[in-house]
Structures are given as C-alpha cells and as structure tokens.
Design a protein that fits this description.
Alpha-Beta Plaits, FAD binding, 12 helices, FAD/NAD(P)-binding domain, Glutaredoxin, 8-stranded mixed beta sheet, 479 residues, single chain, alpha+beta, FAD/NAD-bd_sf
C-alpha cells in the first residue's frame, strides 16, 4: 500500500472541491483531489451562475472565458409576471450567466490543475482517521481495488449530497424531502417564452422553469427546462419520456411551445438538509456535503463555490502559521448563509407549488407589487445573486469587490493570493512589504480586503497600527 502526504486533501471534484483545491494550490500548498467518478460528471444539474459567483470566478481569471460561450440573462420572471430584476446590481455582472455546470466544472478543473493540484479520478474514500496532527485517509481505486494511504493536515469533504466524508465523521444531515420527481431536460422549442430571462410558468398542477441557453437557429432555441407534475410522482429511477416533457411544457405554458428536439434529461428529488457543524476537527464539509435545498433560485453550485472561497484562504493562513481559531470563522460565517439559502429557496419552491386558488391569487397579486418597490427589488436581487451577501453588519464583513479603484478591479488584484489594502482616494502608498495596495476612486474610507473579497477592516490608511493588527489577527507570515 502506497502512502502520500499533502497539506490538504479534497474529496470531490465538483465546483466546490475544485475551487478549494485551486485556491490552496495557488497559495503554494500541496493539494490532492480524490473523485470517485472515473471521468468528469457529464450531467449538468446546475445551469445558472450568479453575479456574486462570477465575481469569484473573475478573481481566478475564469469569468471572461465562460461568459464568451454563455448566455447572459437580465432577470427572472416568477409568480404573476413578477420579475427579479438583476440589471440594477452593483456589480460588474448585472445579470446571471446561463451555461451548463459541465462548463464551469471544466474551467475550475483547468484552474486547479494549472495551480498544481493533483486531481485523481476513479478513487473513493474508504476510511478516515483523525489525530491531533492531521488526518489519515485510506482510498481505493475503483479500477483495480488498490489502496493508497493519504496523510493530510486538513481534509475538505466536497463530495456531494451523499457525502462519504460526512458519514465517516459521523455528522447527521437532518431535513426532509420537499419535492419529488423533478425533471431536468435540454429542450429546443420553436415557440419559447418571449422573455429573454429565466422564466417560470405554473398552474396548480405543474410548473416549468426555463433558462435560455442563447443558442438558436431557424427551427427554434435551446433551453434548460426544470419540470414538475403534481399528478405524476414517480421514483428518480423512472424513465423520463419525451411525451412527459412535452405535456408538462404545454400545460404550464398554456400553449404548445413546439418541441423540436429533446437532449439530455434526468429525474431527481430535492431535499432541505443542513449539517449542524461545518467543521469536525481537521475535516471541513462544504457545498452539497454540508447543505442541500430546493433547486429554485439556482443557488446550489453558487453557494458551494462561495463556501470554498471562504474556507480555502483560511486553511492557507493556518497552514502558514495563523491561529487555529481562524478556521472556526468558516462555521460562523457560512452556516448562517447556508441556512438562509435553504429558507429562501424553500419559500420559492413552496410558492411555486401552492395549490389553493385563494393563496395563488394572493401570491400573484402581492409579489408583483412588492417587486415594483425599488428597495425590495434590489434587496431580493442582491440576495438572489449573492451580491447582497455579508458577514456581519458592516462595514467589516461587507462585500468589497464593487469598490471602484483608480486602476483595475479588486477581482483582478485578487488573482494574487493575499490581502489588499485599498487606500483613500489621493493617498500615497504605505510601507508594508508584500501587501498588495490600491487606491479608491470614490470618497470612501480605506479598507483591508480579505482574499475572498470581503472587508476585514475599515478606517484611515494612516492608522498603521489598526490595519496591521487586523492583518496579524487573520494571517501569518507565509511558510
């Protein structure tokens, strides 16, 4: 049995695991990724990348290449014609990107590999044992059954809703199933929705959620469709038949959309579940291993990538000598976000599938009115897109990537690991060896920005003691 030692071992080569692996490797840490599937997952359950995640991808140099082959949607049409308008977002990305998850996975895999992460496919975790100095993981090749022992300082379980790592650390996954027999399909429609954005159509019996891929020809346009029929609840293993897809689309849209072609399709159910603790000693759970929820709102992949972005730089800091309590902030910051996503996506799922006529009527009356109020519109769009995310009451904990700079963008500066000191407009650079600096283009205060793009400190750049104390509290000299 061979034995390999690394700083961090990531289990799962989905978007969460690949983001974490790439970030750690970019920081100079030795990282391996173990993925049970022998080849990249060909299915694409996720298809919407939100503005907050696009900012994270830009900080890794990936946003432009993905957007070049994707569709940009300006909003989401939901109940009673109500619209979540993304065009007012305070972001370089005032829209959502529509592209199959396979494209995002492939970009993140290239990123992780380019940074030096060792990605091994066709390997499954069989045993995990922790001690005070690290974690020993026994992994088995699915091809020949050969065993390898991995010794890591830390382990990230990013291995999905049926996480082996979560089981091995003994973490419960409380919750329940909220929707069954949901169908995902790529469909080419001759007569799709007139709206260029994400569009929901529903009756008391069915719903159809359509996302335009932006690919069309003389015959029609391609969409990712999420479909559900209250009267046809079958196991996930039941075959998805073309007639089922066509029937639900026709009933939900109250018209024949003209199905030209049906491509990839799948059936699944969705749960609402979340672990109580994201940290288990030297093992951390992230993405679907830590939380699953309704697909309404397209939050799953986005939340997982944000989990990884929050965790990886903290692991890097502690591997470099920072205090262990830095790692406790992962639970403190991300668990409430995961809980909010469960609540938000769950409310949307329950709103879509309301059955009583009176309740549906009130929903269709009130929601459009609320979303015409600018403050409500912007708050919901910010929550939906991730740009409204903050860790605290501000300004510390606020998102910083939207701050205008005299030269470039914060997401570009973030491609180099480490904190960034953004000085007030018109101030000279301070003496701070190895600290990236920039100058604000507006009248705001100086801020010290964490590697994940959030404010760690705010004040005057002349207050050397203030920002240096904050920097020392979060990080240590790199090793």
């Amino acid at each position: 049995m061979s034995s390999i030692e690394v700083d961090a071992l990531v289990v799962g080569a989905g978007p969460t695991g690949l983001t974490a692996a790439g970030d750690l490797a970019r920081g100079g840490r030795s990282v391996a990724v173990l993925e049970r599937r022998p080849i990249p997952n060909p299915s694409s359950r996720a298809f919407v990348t939100m503005a907050g995640t696009l900012e994270a991808l830009d900080a890794r140099g990936l946003a432009d290449e993905l957007l070049a082959h994707a569709h940009r949607t300006p909003g989401v049409t939901i109940f009673g014609g109500a619209r979540i308008d993304l065009t007012h977002l305070d972001s370089a990305y005032p829209y959502a990107m529509i592209t199959p998850q396979t494209n995002v996975d492939a970009a993140l895999a290239r990123y992780a590999a380019a940074q030096g992460a060792d990605i091994r496919r066709g390997v499954e975790v069989a045993e995990l044992i922790q001690d005070v100095n690290g974690v020993t993981v026994t992994a088995r090749s699915r091809q020949d059954g050969g065993l390898t022992t991995w010794r890591a300082r830390y382990v990230i379980g990013a291995d999905g809703a049926h996480s082996t790592v979560r089981t091995l650390v003994g973490a419960d996954f409380p919750g329940k199933t909220i929707l069954s027999s949901i169908v995902l399909a790529d469909v080419k429609l001759a007569r799709g929705p007139a709206d260029d954005g994400l569009t929901l159509r529903s009756t008391r019996e069915v719903f159809a959620f359509l996302a335009p891929y932006g690919r069309s020809d003389a015959e029609g346009a391609w969409y990712r469709a999420m479909l559900w029929d209250r009267r046809h609840q079958v196991p996930d293993s039941a075959t998805v038949r073309p007639a089922e897809i066509t029937d639900i689309l026709r009933r939900a849209m109250d018209a024949d959309p003209g199905v030209v072609e049906i491509g990839w399709h799948s059936r699944f159910h969705c749960d609402e579940r979340q672990v109580e603790q994201y940290r288990h000693g030297r093992v951390f759970l992230a993405g679907d291993a830590a939380h699953v929820h309704s697909p309404m709102g397209g939050q799953g992949m986005n939340t997982g990538i944000q989990d990884a972005a929050n965790l990886a730089w903290k692991l890097d800091a502690v591997l470099g000598g920072a205090a262990d309590h830095v790692l406790d902030t992962y639970q403190a910051e991300r668990h409430p976000i995961g809980k909010r996503v469960l609540r938000q996506s769950g409310l949307m799922a329950r709103g879509v599938t309301l059955y009583p006529r009176v309740a549906r009527g009130l929903r269709n009356l009130l929601v459009p009115r609320l979303l015409r109020v600018p403050s409500v519109r912007d708050a919901l769009a910010g929550s939906f897109s991730g740009t409204g995310l903050r860790y605290g009451r501000g300004p510390v904990g606020d998102r910083a990537v939207h701050i205008p700079l005299t030269d470039g963008r914060l997401t570009q500066l973030a491609r180099t690991p480490g904190f960034v000191l953004v000085r007030e407009r018109g101030t000279a650079a301070v003496e701070a060896a190895g600290l990236t600096q920039a100058e604000r283009a507006d009248a705001g205060p100086a801020v010290l920005v964490r590697p994940d793009g959030y404010v760690a400190w705010s004040g005057s750049s002349a207050d050397h003691q203030g920002w240096q104390a904050c920097l020392t509290g979060w990080a240590a000299s790199r090793s």
